[in-house]
DNA sequence: GATCTAATAT
DNA sequence: CATATTAGAT
């Protein structure tokens, strides 16, 4: 099953233009000759900075529509080679998670977000300065990642995933794989799942009651039908057939929970699977497409980034597309 | 042994 | 309260 999914996705993926095929944003679309023929003023070549500024404007614009973008900081930048490794985590100021939660899409979303630890600042890192730090090379795996912030977007992915897999397959590992979010770990999912289950349980008890005030996050995403069943009995390792609700074979045909109209290139209920710019040097696909992104912060990272998700399956499996969600309120 | 879940810690 | 980490079970 997963293989099939991969096959489909790969197929789709292969259809995408490669770096070379894409016209760099910094490149003029009008040839000099053509330009002069029509008296079009030939604009000076854009610099990386211009491009970034442009992207930023576009993103801002999108955000005002519905796209919940909070920060540009975490976008892999075109300019440098960015990426030190990896996951474009979003670092949030210490107590800001609940931050803009529910209500609101406050307008502007004052993205008061963070600063990436940057290039300039360099290494500091180890707090305390233990004598021997010689041996520790923070490896993508070994590294302790900053706390994950479950943004509504991320949570939605989570719920979608759980909805697709039947309850029986909705276990951390599987969910994580389905979510396909760069940097997301099984533990992250497990922890969230635990809480989500609690929520579901609590919800069932008080049928027809609105979620309590503290359920903001969870209440923000509708509970898939197949999860609202009478009992949520997790982890029953039996060979039960696929959940009647979860689409059996189809890759990710999810449409059930898709509140928004989706353009081409969208994938079922999911926001679509943009390439991970990480490790590919890919400019963002169409800016409009990729929705957001992700989580925590990015502290040290060793390149070797990709593949936090150990997907050793599928020998010939091409690079995976990874989602990156931004923390933002709204939905 | 990997991974799940529940409990507990931060 | 939201997440992370640990412990015990499968």
From TrEMBL:
Highest taxon above the source species: Eukaryota
Gene3D superfamilies: Homeodomain-like
Coiled coil stretches, renumbered: none
Region described as Disordered: 1-21, 70-148, 278-331
UniProt keywords, alphabetically: Nucleus, Transcription, Transcription regulation
Compositionally biased region (Basic and acidic residues): 1-11, 81-94, 289-300
Domain HTH myb-type residue range list: 150-201
Keyword Cytoplasm: no
InterPro entries associated with the record: Homeodomain-like_sf, LUX/BOA-like, Myb_dom, Myb_dom_plants, SANT/Myb
Keyword Nucleus listed: yes
Name used for this protein in its record: HTH myb-type domain-containing protein
Organism the protein comes from: Sphagnum jensenii
């Amino acid at each position: 099953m997963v293989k099939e999914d991969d096959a489909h996705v790969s197929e789709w993926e292969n259809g995408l233009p490669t770096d070379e095929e894409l016209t760099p944003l910094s490149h003029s679309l009008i040839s000099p000759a053509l330009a002069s023929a029509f008296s079009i003023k030939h604009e000076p070549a854009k610099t990386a900075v211009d491009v970034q500024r442009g992207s930023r404007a576009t993103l801002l614009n999108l955000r005002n529509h519905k796209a919940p973008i909070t920060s540009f900081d975490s976008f892999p930048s075109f300019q440098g080679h960015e990426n030190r490794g990896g996951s474009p985590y979003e670092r949030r100021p210490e107590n800001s998670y609940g931050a803009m939660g529910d209500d609101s899409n406050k307008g502007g979303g004052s993205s008061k977000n963070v600063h990436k630890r940057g290039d300039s600042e360099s290494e500091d890192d180890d707090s305390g300065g233990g004598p021997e730090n010689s041996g520790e090379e923070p490896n993508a795996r070994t590294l302790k990642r900053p706390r994950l912030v479950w943004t509504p977007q991320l949570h939605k992915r989570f719920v979608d995933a759980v909805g697709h897999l039947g309850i029986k397959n909705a276990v951390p590992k599987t969910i994580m794989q389905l979510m396909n979010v760069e940097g997301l770990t099984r533990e992250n999912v497990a922890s969230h799942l635990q809480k989500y289950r609690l929520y579901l349980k609590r919800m069932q008890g008080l049928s027809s009651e609105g979620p309590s005030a503290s359920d903001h996050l969870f209440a923000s995403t509708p509970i898939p039908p197949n999860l609202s069943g009478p009992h949520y009995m997790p982890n029953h390792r039996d060979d039960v057939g696929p959940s009647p609700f979860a689409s059996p074979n189809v890759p990710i045909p999810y449409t059930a929970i898709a509140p928004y109209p989706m353009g081409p290139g969208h994938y079922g209920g999911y926001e679509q699977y943009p390439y991970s710019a990480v490790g590919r040097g890919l400019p963002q696909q169409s800016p409009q497409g990729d929705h957001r992104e992700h989580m925590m912060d990015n502290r040290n990272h060793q390149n070797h980034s990709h593949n936090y998700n150990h997907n050793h399956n599928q020998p010939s499996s091409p690079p995976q597309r990874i989602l990156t969600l931004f923390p933002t309120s709204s939905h």
